[in-house]
Amino acid sequence: MNFPIRWSTTVLFAAFATLTFADPVKIIFDTDMGNDVDDALALAMLHSLQSRGESELLAVTITKNHEDVAPYVDVLNHFYGRGDIPIGITDGEVTPEKSRFTPIIHEQEGGNPIYPRSIDVGDLLPAAVDLLRETLANQKDQSVVIIQVGFSTNLAALMQT
Ligand SMILES: [Ca+2]
Fold first, then answer.
1. 60 Cβ contact partners less than 8 Å away, ≥ 6 residues apart
2. Domains along the chain with CATH numbers
3. Average pLDDT in the 54-61 region?
4. Per-residue pLDDT for 113 more than 50?
5. How many CA atoms lie within 13 A of 120 on its CB side?
6. How far is the CA of 13 from the centre of ligand 1 (A)?
7. What is the CA(41)–ligand 1 centre distance, in A?
8. Is residue 56 a contact partner of residue 24, using CB atoms and an 8 Å limit?
9. Ligand 1 (ion): which residues have CB within 5 A?
10. pLDDT tens profile 3-22
């Protein structure tokens, strides 16, 4: 009765080989960050996958229209050592309400922000649709996965271009 054990070992090795040698999946994360915390957890998961060599986060585009959201995404990117990931914001008016968790960007200690970031509230950022176009134009066709976990605002605007 060794068959199940051998089969499991083979499957495990195949999975490991796939995870180890496959090219990282290039990802654009399109999010309404701030409405529900699952988007923050999803972004954290993408960073963890990148740390394991399984993916590469090319850009984050935002569909929630509140000034704290881009700095909050930037805080998460900095936490994972990737503060250079470009962030684009919607020009739509969807859910402008203040979030329950993105206001942590304003917390300070000794006059300095507790959570490092390079984007401040009110900074001029790329329009999400422009960042989507630029990011896709710089990659090979059919090589990028767009993960949308919010509204369709940005991707609809991309389609219209
Ligand atoms: Ca969401």
1. 28, 29, 30, 31, 43, 73, 77, 85, 86, 87, 88
2. 24-160 (3.90.245.10)
3. 98
4. yes
5. 4
6. 35
7. 10
8. yes
9. 32, 39, 149-150
10. 444 444 444 444 444 445 58
